[in-house]
Amino acid sequence: MTGLFISFEGVDGVGKTTQVERLRTYLEAQGRTVVVTREPGGTALGQAIRQMLLHGVDGDSADIAPRTEALLFAADRAQHVAETIGPALERGEVVITDRYLDSSLAYQAGGRELTPQEIRNLSMWATNDLLPARTYLLDMDPALSHSRLQHEEDRMESAGDDFQSRTRQAFLDLAAAEPNRFRVIDASQSIEQVWLAIETDIAGLLQ
Ligand code: TYD
Asked: What CATH class is the domain 4-206?
């Protein structure tokens, strides 16, 4: 594949969406064609899966079994790669995704009962081994980031402080294990400071 694949990760409310849009604007100004997308829900099928994952079925959000949850996120990702990410990269475009497989590793394995290895195997199978060239981890204390959220909490967001702290730590551990792919950015800084860190890095990556 000839395009450039970038993902943003972090716990809820760290400002990923804002930085994704900054990066889109920057790259478009450089003449690149950019596809901005997200998980879960980057495709029509994915939207249906997202609805189930975040809001449950028939108003009952409590009983999605951990393995079912992991499979639904992986199914969303498989469709996302097949329908959106893969074709865009084949066309030589830049793909920026708000969350990708590290979210599954951090949320499904970091916070719940499944092991990182089984979640990784599942996602690598689902995506035919497609990993981003760069992953920006926007890191911040979940207690702070949650107070920034401006909507009612969904099923994942309401999983509790302990779950969110474990998720944050899982992201940091993933970043430490793959320092070439990850850049960890302190998201408690101002929007401008966070963007400056990303801009500096992407300029180097594009060269
Ligand atoms: P997101 O779209 O970032 O939420 P919002 O639109 O509310 O900002 O993600 C939805 C939730 O799904 C989020 O709490 C993280 C969770 N998630 C997982 O648990 N596993 C995954 O693989 C992905 C992609 C997301």
From this structure: alpha beta
